[in-house]
Amino acid sequence: MTNLRNSIEEKVEILKRRLTKFEKARIIGLRALELSLGAPPLIPVDQNGGRMSTIEIAKREVEKKALPLIIGRRMPDNTYVYIPLSELEVED
Questions:
Q1: What is the pTM of this model?
Q2: Which of 24, 35, 54, 57 sits in a 20 to 30 Å window from 46, CA-based?
Q3: Other CB atoms closer than 10 Å to residue 59's CB: what's the count?
Q4: How many domains in the chain?
Q5: Do β-strands 80-84 and 70-74 pair in parallel, antiparallel, or remain unpaired?
Q6: For 6-15, what is each residue's pLDDT tens digit?
């Protein structure tokens, strides 16, 4: 069990700690769909008369890492590495 954990930790260190543009687009799209179906936003939404679209809210949630998501990345040896969104760098 410890050997498995060590090999997984080594793989995680190899991975770039950055959210790819493809992962970001998928997360924003899925979260915007959830918001449009009535899910509550996980960040405070400005209620000063300005309206925000669900995509804008989803983008802010990703930027603030407010979503409790885990990203699964497939490795070349057909194993998966799971990384929480909160541990990844999010770029514009």
A1: 0.77
A2: 24
A3: 19
A4: 1
A5: antiparallel
A6: 776 666 665 6
**φ/ψ of residue 4, rounded to 5:** -65, -45
**25 domain residue, yes or no:** yes
Distance CA 52, CA 73 (A): 31
Q: Would you state the structure tokens that stand for residue 79, as one six-digit string?
A: 């194993």
Contact between residue 27 and residue 67 where contact means Cβ atoms under 8 Å apart:
yes
| Residue numbers of the domain that contains 31 | 2-87
Tokens matching residue 41: 């936003």
Residues 34-54 pLDDT 10s = 999 999 999 988 766 568 899
What CA dihedral angle connects 7, 11, 12 and 18, to 10 degrees?
180
The token pair at 85 is 């969104």
Residue 49, domain CATH = 3.90.940.10
